[in-house]
Amino acid sequence: MTPDWTTNLVEARDLTISFGATAVVDTVSLDLPKGRITALVGESGSGKSLIAHSIAGILTPAATLQAARFGFSGVDLSDASGSGWRDLRGRQIAIIFQNPRAALSPVRRIGQQIGDVIARHRGLKGAELSRAVVEALASVGIVDPEARQHAYTGELSGGMCQRVMIALALACNPRLLIADEPTTGLDNTTQAAILDLVVEQIRARHMACLLITHDLALAREYADEIRVMHAGQIVEEAESSRLFSAPRHPYTRALLGASASQAGSIEALEPIPGSLPDLRGDLPACRFADRCARAEPRCRIAKPLTTGPSGARVACWNPVS
Amino acid sequence: MRTLKRLLSAIPSIIGIVILTFVLTRLLPGDPAAYFAGPAATPESIEEVRTQLGLDKSLPAQFVDYISALAKLDLGRSLSSGQSVVDDLAARLPATLELTLGALIVATMLGISLGFGAALRPGGWPDRLCDAVTVLGQAMPTFFLGLLLVFVFYYLLGWAPAPMGRLEIFYSSPTEVTGFWTLDTLIEGNVDAFRGVLRQLVLPVVTLALFGLGPIARMTRTALLEVLRGDSVRTARAFGLSSRKVLWTYAFLPAAVPILNTVGMVLSFLLGANVLVEKVFGWPGVGAYAIESLLVSDFAPVQGFVLLMAVMYVAVNLGIDLLAAAIDPRTRVDG
Amino acid sequence: MAENMVSTTTSRPLRRVPLAGRVPLALLGLLLMAGILGPMLAPYDPTTTDSAQALLPPSSEHWFGTDQLGRDVFSRTLVATRTDLLVGAVAVSISLVIGTAIGAVAGWRGGRTDVVIGRFIDSIMAFPLFVLAVGIAAGLGNSLTSVIVATAIVNLPFYARAVRFEVSRRRNAGWVEAALLARIPPSKIVALHILPNLVGLLATQSSLNMGWAILNAAGLSFIGLGIRPPQPEWGIMVADGASYIFSGEWWVFTFPGLTLMGAVLIFTRAGDALRQLLDPRSK
Prior knowledge:
- The complex is a heterotrimer.
- Chain A has helices at residues 48-56, 83-88, 100-103, 110-122, 126-139, 145-148, 158-170, 188-205, 216-222, 240-245, 250-258, 297-301; strands spanning 8-19, 22-33, 37-41, 64-66, 69-72, 75-76, 93-96, 176-180, 208-213, 225-230, 233-239, 306-307, 312-315.
- By secondary structure, chain A is α/β, with parallel strands linked by helices.
- Chains in contact: A-B, B-C.
C-alpha cells in the first residue's frame, strides 16, 4: 500500500492518539481526498477534534501520537516539531474554530491579525500587505473592509468574527481547510450563511475540507464524504448520499434515529442507548458493543475489519444490509 | 472623550487627598501658635503669631486659606532650612525619582522575565525563584535588606561605594539640568562621574527593586499562563506564526494590562519604602527630608511631602489607566 | 479551564498543605510564647549597660553578641518580641474593629453612604502606606500612639473592603429579607447572622496584616518615630546597629533584623495556611 498523493491530500493509517495509557483515538485510518468535503461526525468526546488538531499541528503536548502513516501530500505530519511542517501550518493547512471570538486575539485589530499571517507566509509588506488584507476581508463578504480592518473582535458580532476567522484561514490560499464545529454558538440564520460561505470558497478554490461536526443534518447538506466516529474509532465511511439512504453501521442508524431532522416526528425520535463509554476502563474490541442491539460475542473480542466497496465501507461484524 | 472622562475621575481622589492632608495638619497636638512663636514668647506674641498664621479663624475659614495657599503652590516654610517647602521639595525630588524609577525599571524588567520563565515552564526553576522572591519580598524589612547589602558589598567585599548619597565626594557633582544625575553627567560628557553615579545607585536600587519584583513576576506568570492556555494563542500557532510573534504579540499583549496595573501598585510601595531606603543610604531625596523635618517637629515639610506623594500616586495611576486603554481595547469598554 | 486556573493560582503558595500549613502555625505558637514569656526567659537584663562588655561578638555566653553599651543582644531581641507583637496586635485589632464597622455600614446601606465611604477608603489608599504613616505620625506627634494609629489606619481599608463586599452580597438574600420582615433590627442581623460567616476571612486577613503591621511599626521606629531608645524593639535595634556595620560589628543589626523578618514570615505564612484550612475552595 503506497500512498496515493494524486487523489489524497492527507492520508492517515492506524492513527492513535493517547493520553497516558488511554487511546482516545484508536487506530483510525482516514483519507482526505482533494477537492472534496469530508465530514467527521460523532458525539462530543468521540475524538474528532483531536484528529483535526493533529492534522493542524496543534495537538496538546499532553497527548502522544502514533501512526503507521500520517502525511500531507508527502510531508510527514507525525512530528509536529519538524521545520518543513511549520510551513504547512497556515500556508497549506488552515483551521477555523468554534467560538471565533475567543480564537482571535482581543487586543489586536483584525486586519493586523490577518496581516500577521499573510506577512508570514506570503512575505508581503507595506501597501501590498494592506491591499491583501482588505482583499481577504472582502472575499468573505465583509462590507466596507477598509474600515472594518481596524476593528477589534470586541466590536464585532459572533458571525462577523467567524467571517474574519474564515478570511484569516483563506488568506494564503491553503489546500486544506479544517472546520472544527465552525457554527457552534451562532444563531441558525448565521450558521447557514457561514457554511454557505465556507463551501462556496472551498469549491471556488478547489480546496479539500475536513468538516468536524456533531450535526448530521449539517454534514448531509454540505459534505461529499462522511466518516462516522464513535469513541475514538471510525465505524462507517461512505459517500454522503449513500450513508443517509442506506446506513449500515448500527451506530450510524442510531445516530440518524436520534437526529430530529431525520425523524418524521418527535415521537419517532429514538435515543441512543447508553452514552460514550469511559475510555479509561476495559473496552470491548468494538467500542460500540455495549450499546449495540446487534452485538455478538465476537464484537467484544476482535475489532471488526473495515469492509465493503469504496464509498460504502463499514467496520462491523454484523452490519445492517 | 474617554481620556477626558478618566482625567476628570481623578478629581475626587485629589479632593479627598487635600482634605485628608488638611485634617492631618489640624490634628497637631498642643498649640501650634505657641510652638511657632518660640520658647521665649509672651502671650501677646503668641496671639500675634496665631493671627499671622490664621489660626484664630474658624476651621472652614482655615480650610479656605489652606486651599488658596495650595492653589498658589504655597506649602509653607520649613523652620529648619528657612526655605519654602515647595523649593526644598523641588530640589530633592529628582534624587527620589531617579532612585524610585531606577528600582521600578529593574523590578519590572526582572519581574517580567522571571514571570515569563515561570509561565513557560510551570514548576521549573524560574517558577520556584518566583515563589521565593515573593515570600522574601513580603517578609524582608526594607531597611534590614539595605543594611545587609551594605555590610556584604561595602564592608566585606568592598565592591560598592560607601552608602553616602548620590556621588562620592571626590567627584564634582554635575550641573543640574534634568536633576537626574545619570543623565546630567552624560550631558556634561563626564563618563567617570556617570560611572560613579551608577555605582552609588546600584545598592539602593536593588534594595527597592526586590520588593517590586515578587508581585510583578507573579502577575506576569498568572496572566501569561491564562492567555497561553487560551484559544487565541492556539490560533496563532495553528497559522504557523513564529514563536517570537506568538509569545510577544499574541500572548504577552493581552496579559500586559494586569501586569501594568501591578507595576502601578508596586510604584506605590516603592514611594513608601523610599523613605527607609533613603535613610539607610544617606540619599538626599524628599523622603529623607521629610524624616529629618519630622524628627525636629518641623511639620510643614512633612505635610508637603505627604501631599506630593499622594498626588504623584494618583497621577501615576492615571497614566497607567490611559496606557492600558491604549494597549487593550477591552479596558475601554466601560469607559 | 478558567475555573481550574483560578484555583491553581490561589493555592500555589501552599502546594504541600497540610504539612506546610502546620509548620507556620506551630512556629506562630512558638513566637507567641516568646512574646508572653520573653522577659522571664531572657538570660540578661535587656537594659543594663556594661561598657567593659561592649560590642562582643557572638559567643556561648552572649549568643547574639553584645551591643555598643554592652547589653546582651539575644536578651534584647527576645524581650522586644512582646513590644513588637503588642504594637502589631493593638493596631490590627483597631483596624479590624473600625474597618469591619465601616465596611458593614457601607455594605448594608449601599447607595450614597457606600459611595462616600468608598471615596474615603480610596483616598486612604491613594497614599503610599508608609507615607501615610509618616504623615499621621506628624499629625499626632512623635509617640507610640501615633505609630499604632498610623499602622491601624493604613490597614483599615483591607477590612472595610472585604466586609463591605460580603455584607452587600448577602444583603439581598432571602433570609435577610425574612429577618427584616420579622422586625429584627439590621444591626442585629449584621452582627449575629452575617459577620459570623466572615470570621474565617477576617482571621486570615488579620494574620497577614499582623505581619505587615509589625513590619510597618518596626520601619517607623527605625526612622526614629514612636518607641524611644532604651526600650528594646527590633526596628530601633537595627537602627542602632547600623552604625557598627562600618567597623564590622555585624551582629548588632543582623540578629534583630533576622528575627523581625522571621516573625513577619511566620505571620504571613500562617495567614496563608489559615486560608487553606478555612477556605475549601482554594484547595
